[in-house]
What does this fold into?
Amino acid sequence: MSERKETWLFLDTGHLDAATNMAVDEALLHWHSKQEIGPTLRFYGWKKPSLTVGHFQNVHKTIDFNGLEKHECDFVRRLTGGSAVLHDDELTYSIVVSESHPKIPKTVNQAYFVIAQGILFGYRNLGIHATFALPDMHAKERSAVCFETPAIYELVVDGKKLSGNAQTRKNGVLLQHGSIPMSFNVDMLFDLFKFSSERAREKQKAKFKEKAVSINDITGKKHTYAMLKDAFLKGFEKGLNIETKPFSLSKEQWDYVHYLAETKYRSKAWNEERKSVLRSGL
It folds into this structure.
């Protein structure tokens, strides 16, 4: 007898600015912790190229703010850890679900593995036969640039990383979000980081091209947000054995999102120093 499928909420917020995107993810976590919404899968895009940095990342050591200005990139700090990610031509997903949910293992790596099933099936729906990365646990510290080194249970094709994911747990709720690129702008990406010399920048850029790959690169076909949305929604439904119900935010919920965006995710204190002047209940 097959397991009965649970219904999760599905929210597609389309293309928003970086601060609003991060505010929506935090708001979903907050509402789920208060049991105001159920488990939620969200898809979103970015109004303009946006660099997100990990919660604990020292941006003054690694990020070239002149490069951000040159390319007119948005810049925001995530709630989640990990390395910096340039979001541009991609589908981004997030999931909020209780840590005590029967589908969610206690350990970070095993939770990644469970959620990554949805991503795996999404790629298969596009005809891409990805596999899970099982990197060397004794490898050197991860780079400041996401996609340079696959973490455990991230998806790879021929050893090249396909997607980047990050996770946090707060108030009994797991938030995981990730980047699923259709293409990379490698020149822009490497203009956003500090290097000891131009030679070092070019060397690192060449290494990146050997270690990361996008959907368009693999398929030789140009994809759209709508195409990925369909493939990965079906992928998550199959991978997590769930059904989804469309969900949209009320005016009051959007008001809270905009409050978070203005008071936290657009503030220099948060983005550059990881200091929040906001008391959001988180």
Observations:
- The chain has ten helices and twelve strands.
